Amino acid sequence: MNRAAHLERPRLNTGIRVHPPVADGEPWVVQRGEHQYFRIGADLARLARELDGADAQGLAERLGKPWTPELVHTAVRSLDKAQLLAGTAQDRPGGRHRRIRRVKYVPPLTFQLAVLRSGDAAARRINGLRLASPRTLGWLVVVLAAAGAFVLVGQHAHVAAVLGSPVSPATLGTVFAGVFLTTVAHEFGHACLLAHYGGRPGRMGVMLFYFSPAMFCDVSDSWRLNHLQRARVSLAGIAVQAGVSGAAACAAGVVGRGGAGDALMLFSLVNAAAAVINLVPFVKLDGYIALMSYLNRPNLRDAALGSLREGFVALLSGRPYRIKGPGWLPLFGVGCMVTPVVLVVRGLGQWLDALMSLGYFGTLLSSLIAGMLLLMVCKAGAGLVKSFRGNRPRPVRLALLAAVVVALAFGSTQLHVTGSQVAAYEIHRDGTVYLYVPSGPELQPVRTGDRVELQKAGMMLRHTLGTATISSPDAHRTSVPLGGLLPVTTDNVRVQGKRYSLRLDGPMRPGRGSARLHSRSMSLPRWAYQRLVLPFH
Question: 216, 224, 218: which is closest to 198 by C-alpha?
């Protein structure tokens, strides 16, 4: 079929479905493949449903006023541009056919592996159990979450102890396994509520989300629902996590401190943190999708960032600027721009020293994360440059911007930070004290007089127990227990390192734990260079 023929006698492509509104006031929706949905007007939807190979004259007569053959031709070309017609590039020999793939890359840094091509059957099977209605389950989640929050606040000392103490490998493995099962339940929460509303869940599986393992469930079919139902489907997974966290916190309150109680408390805190992060509306997580659905504004984040970029371009070019949308859209764009960077930097800052203690593997992982941030900055810069096409900036304003950038770059050289490295310490009963530094990248040579903090390190909190100084720069090759470098109580796993003699600044009990070796103060660019570049030379 040549191009003229497929436009003269149009048909919808295979895999294209036209869905009527689910309620009064809702739009028609065109579905292409498994997870692509487009909103269209009622008249265009009527035309799309009539495309059976008839010519424009026949379609216009069949549809009636106000349709004319010319209007039909115009509408058909718009459908062809959206690749909804048979005979488009994807439908011709040698073209790319859309199919459901098991492995999928989602920019900027997400890799998905589909375990189920569709979660519809599983979701309907769970719905078939008829344990309770969604409303009843919703109130149960509210009660459990409120009770769990009350327990966490009332037992803040237990919470601090769990977050500030190392855990055994068995406890850590149990908690991670529980969290994994909770994420599975989280995704089934989306799927079940979507199926309850009459939708069809799509691909389900595991993914790497910014280097973190997670689950996913494609609920694109929720775009056929009204905005309130879409918001509820988006929040269903968070509700599951909040309910599980609350139940675990209540169980920890009953069991009390100890192995089982600490594991339940840590499990509750991890799920609570995941639920809170998922609620943040400035990143493409469930909270953002819920807000976008509730406001009934598709592509809200892209629109907000675009509005912010247009405002910046207008500022430099001196042209008038009108916000295309609500007045808060640029402010929302600021949140969308800053929040992902803050989340990554906070996570990187929390675990950077621990990652560096793992040698070149940890350094490589840290550099990959830093590279991801740099890629985000470059992508934003490229989009900004593209926006200047046809909007040439005024020379004076461009010069002022360049001066600000130079001032910030110079200021970063004047900002000094103190480099540090995670290590381990051991105090013997005879009074000898040693510092164990893992092999790998060294920021600076260890010198006599370098300050060392002796700490008790947990999953999120660190407590300084005492201080010491390097008494001799002479190092002895040895193995370092991993339990002193990471918040895990194990001596069975060891890495190669060096041993240095320490002199305590005050009395401390015999034992072992984590340490932080402080090196000299350095500028921020030099710190970044030594952390992320120098180890690979």
Answer: 224
Q: Give 433's strand partners.
A: 427
Tell me the three state secondary structure of residue 38. strand
What is the DSSP secondary-structure string of 100-140? --SEEEETTTEEEEEEES-SHHHHHHHHHT--S-HHHHHHH
Kindly report, residue by residue over 485-509, the tens digit of the pLDDT: 788 888 777 778 889 999 999 999 9
Please give the Cα distance from 107 to 530 (Å, whole number). Answer: 29
Residues 6 or more apart whose Cβ sits within 8 Å of residue 449: 469, 470
Strand order of the sheet with strand 16-19? 16-19, 28-32, 36-40
Contact 29, 224 (CB under 8 A): yes
4, 42, 2: which is closest to 20 by C-alpha?
Answer: 42
Give the Cα separation of 453 and 430 in Å (integer): 21
Side-chain half-sphere of 68: how many Cα atoms within 13 Å?
A: 2
Per-residue pLDDT tens for 39-83? 888 888 888 888 888 888 888 888 888 888 889 888 888 888 888
**For the whole prediction, is pTM greater than 0.85?**
no
CA-to-CA dists, residue 60 to 19, 50, 65, 77, angstroms: 22, 10, 8, 15
Inter-residue contact 224 to 22 (CB < 8 Å):
yes
Helices (H), 197-322: 227-255, 259-279, 286-295, 300-317
> In 3D, which of 420, 364, 374, 412 has the Cα closest to residue 533?
364
